[in-house]
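W.,

You were right to be curious about this one. When I first looked at the sequence I had no strong expectations either way, so I just let the prediction run and decided to look at it fresh. Below is the sequence, 389 residues in total, followed by the output.
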Amino acid sequence: MTTFSRTWIEIDLTAIMANAAAIKAQTGTRLIAVIKADAYGHGAVRVAQALHEIAEMFAVATVEEGIELREAGIRKPILILFSPLPELAEAIVAYQLTPAIDNWQLAQRLNEVEQVDAVERRAVHVDINTGMNRSGVHWTEAKAFLDRLKTLKRLEIEGVFTHFATADETDNSYAYVQLERFSLLLANLVEESLSYSSTHIVHAANSAATLTIPEARFDAVRPGLSLYGIYPSTEKPMPLQPALTWKTRVGWVGWIEAGEGVSYGLTYRAPNRTRVATLQVGYGDGYPRALSNSLSIVRREAVLRHTPSRGEVLIAGKRRPIIGRICMDATLIQLEPSDDVSIGDEAVLIGKQRDAEIGIDEVAARANTISYHILTQISRRVARNYKPL
């Protein structure tokens, strides 16, 4: 498949499995593997299949993502991290998904669904808002909400959880405020509040908290980004293996004369005779347009001044700068005259080539965004190639 691809990513499932196993060993808890947004661009079904014997549960963002996993044969519990709309209750029950709940309307609708083949008790996790303030039952009202849920005979309160707003920051003080609120709620919950389940799960730790806040691990951790070998902050308390490499091919090689420009708007103009190459990848594939190079002209001095190149790629084992605007389907780079580069050669956008490496954190920083955004913007037309397990 790679032979015929203009741009593709290579995904090392063995690395993802190793990261998951290392996280479990480090934390000593159950693993809720977050594979939302198509497993952060790595392919949710393939990642779930690889982690099926390691993870106790999977977590996604939407009902549709959960259904995709079920239809692919994934039988492990699947948690919907964001409380779905009540109108999706029938699908949740039919596919035996475990929704987060933070409102009475959804809870009541789940309890009302009549399905012949459905399990009698429907597992739910209650989302507790301890300060993220984007979803969840406020922590001061959670006890009353849990007690009210006990009146719905078809619901089983399997878990309670919260989400940290600042666990990936150097200053973790607010994360500890949230942790204190969550812990206070847990301490105040009478046993009857969770009496529908003898195996209830308390979880709070995203990737950042999993790696750096041991007090937040509770019964299970909920890593996402770190599963794929990427650190959510500057701290690197344990070794992780990057699982994704993004490659493309050279589609054109040529020369331009001094003063000539490249790409839309001719925002780059060559200061002298320059060798250039076109790579078969662009923002239509999810490659950030923000990595484009631009030009300023000082007319009084009649000189060309280029801004420092934001983006670089690896070709022939060397870093080469992006020039001009990144197009929907193409990206231009500047070559050295001596570079041994031909049409069809591989270039690496993220990953290693020979002794050189461009990490995703570097790409994200140069594009003024975050690694999550880079991963989840890789489009469907970029082929996914999986290394054999």
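Here's what jumped out at me. The first helix runs from residue 13 to 27. And, maybe more interesting for your project: The chain is about 25% helix and 25% strand.

Coffee later to discuss?

I.
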